[in-house]
Amino acid sequence: MKKIWLALASMVLAFSVSAADISEGKQYTNLSKTVNAAPDVVEFFSFYCPHCYQFSEVYKVNSTVEKNVPENTNMVRYHVDFLGPLGKDLTRSWAVAMALGVEDQVSPALFKGIQETQSIRSVDDIRNTFINAGVKGEDYDAAMNSFVVNSLVSQQQNAVADFQINGVPAMIVGGKYKMKNDGISAKSPEEYAKTYSDIVNQLLLKK
């Protein structure tokens, strides 16, 4: 099978990761400072980031992790402001998606509009993308400047600062372990996502 490459490093032969195989510096790193009261799993991403596109839409890492984490695990996805001319607008729109519970509905369309068709060039284009994905325009407009969305925007921005995120995609487990995307090798997107998910679950046991 033709190999597909993820993140900034090439992936070689596949291997199976057991609890004994996981080591700090290889599949994950310890943060210099633990962020207390953080969600169990936090993914940081940007719709402008090509690797985030592959992470989400090709490798489907976030959906695989979400499906396999233990019940009652608090997992969130936060958009970062620091990439692209509409970075801050997309962070607010992502907060709208979170408030309306339509993240899975709009995420592929937003990635496509930014990464593939380059059809998203304005805040109106973002709004139209939501509408085309099935969200009512009046619901989008009502949520846009609501207290809940304002709080979610601040929550995302504060988390980026607290975790000192300067590159994406990034996934943090237990407020103190940062996954190393280039520390996992696989022969297929499915195998990569499954191995990644297994490591997240083992780190959840360590927290």
What is the radius of gyration computed over CA atoms, rounded to a whole number of angstroms?
17 Å
Strand order, largest beta sheet: 1-5-4-2-3
Separation of termini?
Answer: 37 Å
State the helical fraction.
40-55%
Low-confidence stretches: 1-20
Largest sheet: 5 strands, mixed
Q: What is the annotated CATH architecture?
A: 3-Layer(aba) Sandwich
The best one-word shape is: globular
Task: Return the average pLDDT rounded to an integer.
Answer: 90
Please report the total strand number as a whole number.
5
Number of H/I helices = 8
What count of domains describes the coordinates? Answer: 1
Query: What is the CATH class?
Result: Alpha Beta
The name of the CATH topology is Glutaredoxin
Secondary structural class: alpha+beta
Report what the structure shows.
The protein is α+β, with helices and mostly antiparallel strands. The chain has one domain: Glutaredoxin. 47% of the residues lie in helices and 10% in strands. It contains eight helices and five strands; from the N terminus they run E-E-H-H-E-H-H-H-H-H-E-E-H. The protein has helices spanning 50-58, 61-68, 87-100, 103-116, 123-132, 137-144, 147-162, 189-206; strands at residues 28-30, 41-45, 75-79, 170-173, 177-179. It has a five-stranded mixed sheet, sandwiched between helices. Strand 4 and strand 5 (177-179) form a beta hairpin. Mean pLDDT is 90; it is low at 1-20.
